[in-house]
Amino acid sequence: MPANYSGTWDIVDNENFEGYMVALGIDFATRKIAGMLKPQKIFEQDGDSFTVKTLTTFRNYSSSFKIGEEFEEITKGLDNKKCQTTVNWDNDKLVCVQKGEKKNRGWTHWMEGDTLYLELKCEDQICKQTYKRTA
Ligand code: 1AG
């Protein structure tokens, strides 16, 4: 039985989001707006099938994937790039690799009780986000 991430999660900490956005090539003005946001994650999970929505007052992002199945991800409204993306289980962690123009791009999610962690990496930058379950 895989871990179940289903639920609603609100951000409580966001470390080095600025460095991550610089590595992605996001312009200054967009970074200043994005850095103020308090994203909410909505996970919908059915076994190995996921839809993850990241909601903010500025822009929303949604990604749907099945574990182990590579898909073409267009990071629309983020850095607007095309990636060949795969998400796999590492025990109960979700490990995503985003192959494309940027080296070392991907993210990892894991849970500890009602806390959800997300590490986003791009090139030499790591952003560490923490979320608390609200539903
Ligand atoms: C993601 O989460 C990315 C979700 O895949 C958004 C995370 C970071 C934003 C990425 C780059 C910033 C680019 C532009 C800034 C503009 C708007 C910011 C909007 C913030 C969120 C929509 C991993 C996983 C689900 O949870 O895919």
From TrEMBL:
Q: Domain Cytosolic fatty-acid binding proteins: where?
A: 7-24
User: Is Transport among the key words of this record?
Assistant: yes
Name the Gene Ontology molecular function terms of this record: lipid binding
Q: Which UniProt keywords apply?
A: Transport
UniProt cross-references to InterPro entries, sorted A to Z? Calycin (IPR012674), Fatty_acid-bd (IPR000463), ILBP (IPR031259), Lipocln_cytosolic_FA-bd_dom (IPR000566)
Short name of one Pfam family = Lipocalin
- Keyword Transport attributed: yes
The UniProt similarity line reads:
Belongs to the calycin superfamily. Fatty-acid binding protein (FABP) family.
Q: Which PANTHER family match?
A: FATTY ACID BINDING PROTEIN (PTHR11955)
Q: What is this protein called?
A: Cytosolic fatty-acid binding proteins domain-containing protein
Taxonomic classification, please?
Eukaryota, Metazoa, Chordata, Craniata, Vertebrata
